[in-house]
Description:
The chain has one domain (2-141): Nucleotidyltransferase, domain 5 (2-Layer Sandwich). Helices cover 35% and strands 37% of the residues. It has helices at 48-61, 76-84, 92-102, 119-134; strands spanning 2-12, 17-28, 34-46, 67-73, 106-111, 139-141. A 6-stranded mixed beta sheet has the order 5-4-1-2-3-6. Strand 2 and strand 3 (34-46) form a beta hairpin. The longest helix has 16 residues, at 119-134. The relative contact order is 0.27.
Amino acid sequence: MRIVHAYTDGACSGNPGPGGWGVALIAFNSQMEIRTRLISGYHPDTTNNRMELQAAIEALRNLKMACDVKLHSDSQYLVNTMTKGWKRNKNLDLWQELDKVCQLHNVTWVWVKGHSTNRGNNTVDKLATDAIRFKKGKDYKV
Length: 142
C-alpha cells in the first residue's frame, strides 16, 4: 500500500467569512520516490472549522488508490473528533463526507502545532490564506 503524508489546513477571514483550505500530499512509492502535490480551494462564505474539514476531505479524495495516510492537522477540532470521539454537533454534512472518504484509506491522525516550525503545516497555511487572498484555489505538482 502506498504511504502518504498529508498536511491540511483551513482558514477563514472573519468567522464566518471568506475561507480557504490547503493540502500538501507527499507520496512515497515502492521505490521510495517522493511525489508532492499542493492543492487549495476557496469558499466565499464559510467558517474556519468547515475549511479544516474540507481540507481533510480534499486530501483523502485526491488520492487515486487506497493508501496508508498520516494526516497532519493543526485543528484539534478535527483530530480529536476523529481520535477521541468528540461530539459532532455541527457541520454534519462534512463529517459524513469525511467518514466516507476515510473508508478508502488507513488514516492515522496527527495533531501539529499551528504557526510554528512545522514546514508542512506552514506550507498549507499559506495555501489556505492565499486562496482567500486571491479568491481561488490552485492545484500543482512539485
